[in-house]
Amino acid sequence: MAKTVIVGAGPTGLAAAIAIKQKDSSADVLILEKRHKLNEVEGAGIAMPANSVVALRELGLTEELKEHAYQVKHCIYTEADGRPICRASFTATGTNVPFMAINRGELQNLLLKKARTLGVKVQTGCELINFKQNNNATIEVNWQQQVPISADNKKSELLHDTFDLLISADGIHSKTRALVFPDVKVQDFGLTNWRCIADKPTEFKELEFEPTFMWGNQGQLVMLYPFSKDQCYMYFHTFDEEKNDAQYRSFSADDFKSFGLFVPEILNQIKTQNISLTTSRFQITAKPCYFNPKFSSVLLIGDAAHPVTPILQQGATQGFWDAYFLGKLYNEATVETLPMSFSRSRQDIMQNIMNRSNDPVKNIVSSIRKGDFAERITALRKAGTPLNIAGWKNLFASYPDQINVRITAP
């Protein structure tokens, strides 16, 4: 019976734990989560393209998606003032598998419930300190746990244990990646983004309540993505190359005052309802960071291994596919060889997906810097197909296994 520790109880970490327990019900799986409460979810919504839906179905969440996720049918691009650029059905991507969206907190709760049902242990308030690779192919892990002793006070306790496998799913700012790949640097695109949940704007009594991407001439973007019949995931970004990860720019409605349609109503919601926004930057690594032979018992997955831009929504998606392949290899490889085998099977595929996700954004940023982003909008209108629709179509054609529904999970 393998003893596994997973760092991070976000969607990817929980999915990995589920995949392992589905393959080996006797596996000892512990998740260490930095947050003190698992309902303290960062982010707002998760847009799930077809290959994300297939991955979650493979993990046994078919019925949960039917009940809790919201299917979208069209992708719409407009200029900031609402003038149409282009639109397309999601079936134009070459698959009839639905595109869906869900409240991030709701997906987290569904995964957590399934993980606990399978016997996964989750410890909160736990921050990874370091780890040491042992000669006997085990890994010694040290972490600090903060335990509340009153409403205002917490007690810190240093803990350690030895495991057969450490799986890092601690996100784009992964501490594990910094320890295992100290020379890998994160690249910043100069784009600050903000995300929140908002109520369905009244504007959509007349408009289709479908994913809508509104582009400004300076590269600003406002995206509305429904995840229920009366709520939506809102995403804003603007170009600000001078800022860095340690200096997030505060959200300013003035950056989007030129936007029409539903945007003024959303901005008013943010102001009057004091809606909290999650802030981040477009940051990537040049290549996937799954495995380093110096740490043979450590495997990185999800954004910890391969942070990408969100244009094709492959961040969470490929985290779910990492979990699927982890479960698949769990019975095929020994625990000692699993990280290396996993890396060999996923490295080239993920490198290609990273390039497909990042290159369009590199081109957008290049246009912003040159001051000719308006010309890119004209080219989009002439092409008649949204960037992400074209990207998904090419991606699915290259990797049809990610949209072929198999449903192998129990």
Describe this structure in words.
The protein has 410 residues and is an alpha/beta fold. It has a domain at 3-72 and 99-185 and 284-360: FAD/NAD(P)-binding domain, CATH 3.50.50.60. The protein is 32% helix and 27% strand. It contains ten helices and 18 strands. It has helices spanning 11-23, 50-58, 62-68, 104-117, 175-180, 263-272, 315-330, 338-370, 373-383, 387-398, and strands at residues 3-7, 28-32, 45-48, 70-72, 74-79, 84-89, 99-103, 121-123, 126-133, 139-148, 154-163, 165-168, 187-199, 212-215, 221-226, 231-239, 278-284, 298-300. Strands 6-5-14-15-16-13-17 form a seven-stranded mixed sheet, with helices on both faces. Strand 10 and strand 11 form a beta hairpin. Helix 1 runs parallel beside helix 7 (315-330). The chain starts with a strand and ends in a 12-residue tail after the last helix.
